[in-house]
UniProtKB/TrEMBL annotation:
<dbReference type="Pfam" id="PF04542">
    <property type="entry name" value="Sigma70_r2"/>
</dbReference>
<dbReference type="Pfam" id="PF08281">
    <property type="entry name" value="Sigma70_r4_2"/>
</dbReference>
<dbReference type="InterPro" id="IPR036388">
    <property type="entry name" value="WH-like_DNA-bd_sf"/>
</dbReference>
<dbReference type="InterPro" id="IPR013325">
    <property type="entry name" value="RNA_pol_sigma_r2"/>
</dbReference>
<protein>
    <submittedName>
        <fullName>RNA polymerase sigma factor</fullName>
    </submittedName>
</protein>
<keyword id="KW-0805">Transcription regulation</keyword>
<feature type="domain" description="RNA polymerase sigma factor 70 region 4 type 2">
    <location>
        <begin position="134"/>
        <end position="180"/>
    </location>
</feature>
<dbReference type="InterPro" id="IPR014284">
    <property type="entry name" value="RNA_pol_sigma-70_dom"/>
</dbReference>
<dbReference type="InterPro" id="IPR039425">
    <property type="entry name" value="RNA_pol_sigma-70-like"/>
</dbReference>
<dbReference type="InterPro" id="IPR007627">
    <property type="entry name" value="RNA_pol_sigma70_r2"/>
</dbReference>
<dbReference type="InterPro" id="IPR013324">
    <property type="entry name" value="RNA_pol_sigma_r3/r4-like"/>
</dbReference>
<feature type="domain" description="RNA polymerase sigma-70 region 2">
    <location>
        <begin position="26"/>
        <end position="93"/>
    </location>
</feature>
<comment type="similarity">
    <text>Belongs to the sigma-70 factor family. ECF subfamily.</text>
</comment>
<keyword id="KW-0731">Sigma factor</keyword>
<dbReference type="InterPro" id="IPR013249">
    <property type="entry name" value="RNA_pol_sigma70_r4_t2"/>
</dbReference>
<keyword id="KW-0804">Transcription</keyword>
Amino acid sequence: MDKTDEVLKERIDKAKAGNQIAFSSLLDTFWNYVYYFQLDRTKNENDAEDITIQTFSKAFDKIKTYDDNYEFKTWLITISKNIHVDLIRKRKRNVLAGIENSTSDAVKKVLDESPTVEDQLITEQNLATLLSHIKKLKPHYQEVINLRYFNELSYAAIAKELNEPVNNVKVKLLRAKKLLAEIIKSK
């Protein structure tokens, strides 16, 4: 085993023990590899980015199941491929459902496209609930969520705004989303 393999194994072991710096280091090391792999498959930057984020999220959640007999990079790519396949299947289901409902959807669109007062009220209530959950996060997590999803900034723009490296923004957003999901699930 050469020096780089030993360093990688040490990082993985630390990540398995819950060390956030090790997670960040693994993300920095393998982000571009997974992202460009998916970009080549999807030919879409947004899809590649979303799949890559989901890949690292799932990998970090399941890191204790990682088997050292396989390359870590291969393990990540396998997770990434599975997420991509799931995305394709989901889109196919949505398209097929759309075709089946296309005639009734066309009738609905002709009749009325505007949301009802009830729809607007439900949307406002859901947004208010989501915002109250976001406010339970630490301020730096609130900020990154707001910049990404409400201001719709790219990772690069958020990094510039926060004066942080892009990979830190990615990890922070990943962590913020996980914490927010836990808060929502607990309700």
